[in-house]
Input
Amino acid sequence: YYDKIVSEGNYDLDEYEAIWKSVAVVFDKIVPFDVVRGARVLDLATGRGIVLTEAVRKGASEVVGVDISKGMLNQAEAALARFDSPATVRLIEGDMFKLSELLGTPEKEEDKFDIITISHVLLLYSKEEIVKLVSQARQFLKNNGYLVMLFRTFDEENYSSRHGHEFTAEEYRDILNGIGFTQTGSIVASEEMDSD
Output
């Protein structure tokens, strides 16, 4: 599906200013700058690499993107190639629900990631699938790491209801708390609607 969209030039998600604002907020307000600089960042459903591009711009030492679409990963590679950065970049084609198969099981704390992002896809999944994905991601996150879930629009309830799933910020916090995260919060990066 996404390979077809890329080949037809119909993928416009990252053309919305609200998307760029939400990504900028990750590395400006959510994750402290001193954590980003030198960090290992894993981005699930990386798409065209918006999050990874911003992580590299902010000084991450290693960025890893996982996506099911080779076409999206090709575009992410092109976007990241524009930077003259010493960061290590890995783009992996595969199912984000199978991280152990794609990345291997981290044996030591230093093998884990400082920051893991899940970008603009959770609304496509049921609560059970979200719990499975986030539980798996947690195994790859350092003990003091940051898990950041990005949403396409601050009107997530309206947007997600069109896909059959509707969760509030509180329900996402409950999911995270149930998995064992102890410090959770939410922030609205932009109150602009996609149509604005």
The mean pLDDT is 80. The first strand starts at residue 40 and ends at 44. Strands lie at 40-44, 62-67, 88-93, 113-119, 141-150. The CA atoms of residues 114 and 144 lie 7 Å apart.
